[in-house]
Amino acid sequence: MQANANYPKIVSWEDRHEPGEGLLYDNSHLSSIDSAPCRPESLDISKYAVVTIYALVFLLSLLGNSLVMLVILYSRVSRSVTDVYLLNLAMADLLFALTLPIWAASKVNGWIFGTPLCKLVSLLKEVNFYSGILLLACISVDRYLAIVHATRLLTLKRHLVKFVCLSTWALSLCLSLPILIFRKVIYPPFSSPICYEDMGNSTSKWRMVLRILPQTFGFFLPLLVMLFCYGFTLHEMIKSRMRQRHQAMWVIFVVILIFLLCWLPYHLVLLTDTLMRTHVIVDTCARRNHIDQALQATEILGFLHSCLNPVIYAFISQKFHHRLLKILATHGLISKELLPKNSKPSFVACS
């Protein structure tokens, strides 16, 4: 059966699109009659189950990150440097959460929202990830300087933190520019429309460049910075006799850990896919399908991260409880008698 001439060519293994967007392969290289085509196998999970997960993540993220931003913004006078980074982190998660209803709808009906919205929601997804790990790397450097080197130029750091946050957003946007430039609605034959990159000729070569560079500068390098800083910080905290001073640091450790648990599997699978595309790993049909299924599953795990940080604060940080209760009491929503006697404004501030 001949595809319509107006349609783009069938997406091959080298050019297949992101997980969850429908996978098509060009089997024209299988010239032998006895050769069986490598057909894609989707993850064995209902698309309506995925939509339900996205809806729950959207609601939890919307509520949780809004509360986190409210608590931090309310503590304007005594806001710490770490709080400012976490404010930007909550903002990134909130912006991404607003796109989840659109991603959920595309799971059911394909991409029916046009190219401009395709570019916008894809950009927000990428910026959310890169700004997240870069902000966490900034926090790790700040805590490393404060605890290991006892650097206490708080006034200077408060002045610079706005510049650092703006630079982080700018770098995240730069790393996400390929998505903004090349993403568009594509109408593959025998499939629903998809939101995917259209790079013209030499797609495989460009896709490798535009995947390896952001992965290197937007994930693995910040990860190395975090491992270095928190390795020395943890060592300093363990040998210190005044561990109580740094109790709030464990909130940050958990935030880092949850981020890695959610996003590291996806990027390890993506790295494996990159190695297969560059023929470092033998390319087989079974491995293609395994990687595709793993990408779909780990992408869902990555999306889940946008609602988890507020849960961490709610269950671990007493300072967050104190500040939230104070806000509720100030507006008459709860009795002031419920407020704790001694509570500091910053819910993750560390000495």
TrEMBL record:
Q: Where in the cell is it found?
A: Cell membrane
Q: Mind listing the GO biological process terms from this record?
A: calcium-mediated signaling; dendritic cell chemotaxis; immune response; neutrophil chemotaxis; positive regulation of cytosolic calcium ion concentration
Q: How does it sit in the membrane?
A: Multi-pass membrane protein
SUPFAM superfamilies reported for this sequence: Family A G protein-coupled receptor-like (SSF81321)
| Gene Ontology CC, one term | external side of plasma membrane
Keywords in alphabetical order: Cell membrane, Chemotaxis, Disulfide bond, G-protein coupled receptor, Glycoprotein, Membrane, Phosphoprotein, Receptor, Transducer, Transmembrane, Transmembrane helix
InterPro entries per UniProt: CCR1-9-like (IPR050119), Chemokine_CXCR_1/2 (IPR000174), GPCR_Rhodpsn (IPR000276), GPCR_Rhodpsn_7TM (IPR017452)
**What main location does UniProt list?**
membrane
* Superkingdom as given in the UniProt entry: Eukaryota
Boundaries of each G-protein coupled receptors family 1 profile domain copy? 64-313
- Residue ranges spanning the membrane: these are 51-73, 85-104, 129-148, 160-182, 212-235, 247-266
GO MF annotation list: C-C chemokine binding; C-C chemokine receptor activity; interleukin-8 binding; interleukin-8 receptor activity
Q: Which chain positions lie within coiled-coil regions?
A: none
Self-association state and partner proteins as the record states: Interacts with IL8. Interacts with GNAI2.
Looking up PANTHER family in the UniProt record yields: C-X-C CHEMOKINE RECEPTOR TYPE 2, CELL ADHESION MOLECULE
Tell me which family the UniProt entry assigns to this protein: Belongs to the G-protein coupled receptor 1 family.
Role description: Receptor for interleukin-8 which is a powerful neutrophil chemotactic factor. Binding of IL-8 to the receptor causes activation of neutrophils. This response is mediated via a G-protein that activates a phosphatidylinositol-calcium second messenger system. Binds to IL-8 with high affinity. Also binds with high affinity to CXCL3, GRO/MGSA and NAP-2.
Q: What is this protein called?
A: C-X-C chemokine receptor type 2
Origin organism is Otolemur garnettii
